[in-house]
Amino acid sequence: xxxxxxxxxxxxxxxxxxxxxxxxxxxxxxxxxxxxxxxxxxxxxxxxxxxxxxxxxxxxxxxxxxxxxxxxxxxxxxxxxxxxxxxxxxxxxxxxxxxxxxxxxxxxxx
Length: 110
Fold this sequence. Notes:
It contains five helices and no strands. The protein is mostly helical and 110 residues long. α3 packs antiparallel against α4. The longest helix is centred in the N-terminal third of the chain and has 28 residues. The radius of gyration is 17 Å and the shape is elongated.
């Protein structure tokens, strides 16, 4: 019946979301926040949101990623790692185009 089929799809989708959250959390814990491309916490959390746009865990984690990127960039700059900081800001700005702090940092580094 259609109702049972819809429930099965929903269950399969939830199982995929759970697997992606587990992968994303692992990437997050080991510091793969926005790189390497396609194998990082940001990418995995975005996939979760494609399947479940209201997933609060993924939404919150993406906010945390932005905060951690900003903090890490400040550390890189303080340590004189300007090129690494610039590369990180360019990538982060492309992922988070609405983040005004990232935009300001990017503008200041040019």
